[in-house]
């Protein structure tokens, strides 16, 4: 027996709808706001955190971070993150803030869908969105894609409202929909894939809008974007030239990516598994949803939803840049309209069939939630590609900050395995320690001893490689640095013991025009042809940061002046020099197999980079005296 279908709400939502929307918000918040210590936190997240922190300190900006395509993004995410960082510097608070926005979007999606579908169908879609592992993952970072779900939901609601309101109010809602699209583009570039959907939106009401209304809608887009557009305008021509020259070399595997977003995890290798059964259910419901939507194609709201899904996917194929998987988050939440419409079709066929369909999608949602639970368990043990969870980073930063205060130190020195922008430990800890005086040191071959008390954070990876760390004492129990067994060790440097740190070096004296003075050197290893030796230099910075980059050169010479080996390295970047710093640097040098036997001569000098101009050694009057200093070796 067929029962009359439940009519979707057409005006204000009933208290039942408000209750169900609230339930969905709570369900969506549960995986997004718990275990934030296990949230993913990499270089991109650190950069966004740092920019938001700087914004709160008065460093205003009209651009955000740089996109993977090499062009600066708009700054909406940075502004959004500044709100929770105003309350707390804890990055877990900011991460939870984005998760809360995504949870609220889940409830809003249900209320939006209720304009088109019954409670059971809309609630089924909300459940799938609430427990989608991919959607959860992209609500637990400080990443531009994390803001897209709330904004696409806003754009969806504004677009459907624009298509539903009487003609006299169409202009107002056109401006709101265009403003929502502007907010998407002020976050990142992937929402450009929704441009065809926006055009379709206007096409549906093309005969009902006046030129004045179109002008207001255009202003709703241009005014929010204008500061950003004016800022990046000078860079745009050169970027477009480079982009057109590079072109797009590989078409993205869209069917697999779209199905992964719908499923919430990777596509199964075979359908003869539990995951395969879930896939089959979603495919069946989605096909039923397509049939139902096709039957209602006279409704321009349905045509808009279809345009969103179809035209956005086609735009991804035509997009002039390489498409990444996370770009397709702009398909959410609309992608879940398909299985929801499948439930609606079942409800309209028979009431029992509708309940069965709702129950099956509930089981799919619970399966997705179980996938997320297992994901968290894997992350706790360590997952390649996921990176170090947030809790490890924040504990290290908090411990460092506390020790600087407790030991009355003037700064923290972070001895890490690399200090380049692409070195994750350096990038993340540098961001999280914003506001605490600190310097980054490549601990593989450098140790800095400042003329004041300093706390040293030493990554376990550099302890075995670093042969220059002397004269300090441990001041705290080591902290775990990752799920893979790495640790952070904490040491205290006190200037009173400064002499001890250079006691193992052979005294030497030479002063360069760069403001650095050699105090000693040491050779470790078997100095013979074909062998590798360690050359340790101890020197003092007599002035502040030097205006040019400086590289050191170490030449291993025979008695006749023949070069038997050499190494060039930046050592300690000039931008981090401070007056009174004592620095020990370690260089690995391999002596040529065909080199003559010892004794040898050690030659040490400096040159500018990239200018490659020799920096002379100066005499007491500051006049150039030599190009390098040489030390006979036994």
What does this protein structure show overall?
This protein has 634 residues and is of the alpha+beta class. Helix 4 runs parallel beside helix 7 (148-164), helix 5 (119-131) runs parallel beside helix 16 (351-381) and helix 13 (274-295) crosses helix 15. The model has no long low-confidence stretch (mean pLDDT 91). It contains 20 helices and 17 strands. A 5-stranded mixed beta sheet has the order 2-1-4-6-5. A 5-stranded antiparallel beta sheet has the order 3-12-9-8-7, with no helix packed on it. The protein has 3 domains: 15-236 and 253-381, no CATH class; 390-499; 502-632, Immunoglobulin-like, CATH 2.60.40. The chain is 46% helix and 17% strand.
Give me the secondary-structure topology.
Layout lengths: L14 H19 L9 H14 L19 H12 L3 H23 L5 H13 L1 H5 L10 H17 L2 H19 L9 H10 L6 H22 L3 H11 L7 H10 L10 H22 L4 H19 L18 H13 L1 H31 L8 H17 L4 E6 L7 H9 L5 E5 L3 E4 L4 E6 H4 L9 E8 L6 E7 L4 H4 L4 E7 L3 E9 L7 E10 L7 E9 L5 E7 L12 E9 L10 E9 L4 E2 L1 E2 L5 E3 L2 E4 L2
Parallel strand pairs: 1-2, 1-4
Antiparallel strand pairs: 3-12, 4-6, 5-6, 7-8, 8-9, 9-12, 10-11, 10-13, 13-14, 13-17, 15-16
